[in-house]
Design a protein that fits this description.
The chain is mainly β. 4% of the residues lie in helices and 52% in strands. It contains one helix and 26 strands. It has one helix at 258-269; strands at 6-11, 13-17, 21-27, 38-46, 55-60, 63-71, 74-78, 83-86, 91-95, 100-106, 113-121, 132-136, 143-146, 149-155, 157-158, 161-162, 173-179, 183-188, 194-201, 204-206, 209-211, 215-219, 224-229, 234-240, 248-250, 253-255. The strands form six sheets. A seven-stranded antiparallel beta sheet has the order 1-22-19-24-17-14-13, with no helix packed on it. The radius of gyration is 18 Å and the shape is globular.
Length: 277
């Protein structure tokens, strides 16, 4: 049994994104351009009185986007005909595959919008697969009640509790964890998976190092994660199998080679992006 410790701490940086939105970015910025198989992690923070802001239509190819809400609501629409609205504790898992154009816009009034967007890479063999959209409602996400904690498991399996998001190439774990008592909890993780935690509320410790809210903690390899903190401490825990493949990236497009990126730009510019096979 090998305990995971903190390899690196990355406080999130404020970055303008979409239309009038400031996100707090930890993965996908200078010093942390990717964390195989993860490409980006943004924490959204939209004030209740903000007007006309959000993420209007924009394209993606070659990876998957995960949106998970803490408060407020967002509505998704895309060119594959999917639409859905998610609120606190709900998620959307969209596989862009060969190409999709979508929007995510706030729908709630009088409530701050807070949540996460995570980009998950696709292996080369799946980058041009058909797009797919999974709307993950609150009552489909199981709550694991463990020793000193609860965890809402969106994807993957944690202590025998399996999340509703399935058939994802990197076999991810995505869990929203809250400590229910003061003390230390233990969570198993696949030894060979890349893993990180991101602080939502309160300070907590991992093997003697402190993680603050709005901070990404990249974990070393191992099969047990121990977290110490006070009751009410909340964080997200994410893990996935690394792909060990080259990454060629241009804005919202992620492929394996520069030539594939150039082809993607040609498809976008000549109007064949959505129909490309």
């Amino acid at each position: 049994m090998k305990h995971r410790s903190i390899q690196t701490l990355f406080p999130a940086q404020a970055v303008p994104e979409g239309k009038g939105v400031t996100v707090h970015r930890s993965i996908g910025r200078k010093g942390m351009s990717k964390l195989d198989p993860f490409l980006l992690l943004d924490e959204m923070d939209i004030k209740a009185d903000a007007k006309g802001v959000g993420f209007p239509e924009h394209p993606h190819r070659g990876f998957e986007t995960v949106t998970y809400m803490l408060s407020g609501s967002m509505q998704h629409r895309d060119t594959a005909g999917n639409k859905g609205e998610i609120g606190p504790g709900e998620a959307q898992w969209m596989t862009a595959g060969r190409g999709i154009v979508h929007s995510e816009m706030p729908t709630s009034t009088g409530t701050d919008i807070a949540g996460f967007q995570l980009w998950v890479n696709l292996p080369a063999k799946d980058k041009m697969k058909a797009p797919r959209y999974q709307d993950v409602a609150y009552d489909t996400i199981p709550t694991l009640r463990g020793d000193g904690f609860t965890a809402r498991v969106v994807a993957g399996t944690l202590l025998g509790t399996e999340g509703p998001v399935k058939e994802i190439a990197v076999k991810p774990l995505f869990a929203d964890v809250t400590l229910t008592d003061n003390g230390t909890i233990s969570l198993p993780l696949p030894t060979d998976h890349t893993a990180f935690v991101y602080g939502v509320t309160s300070l907590f410790d991992i093997e003697g190092k402190t993680v603050a809210p709005r901070t990404l903690a990249v974990l070393t390899s191992g099969d047990i994660l121990q977290v110490s903190g006070d009751a009410g401490t909340r964080f997200i825990l994410v893990a996935g199998a690394p792909l060990h493949e080259p990454v060629a990236r241009y804005g919202p497009f992620v492929m394996n080679t520069r030539e594939e990126i150039m082809q993607t730009l040609d498809d976008w510019n000549n109007g064949s992006f959505i129909e490309a096979r």
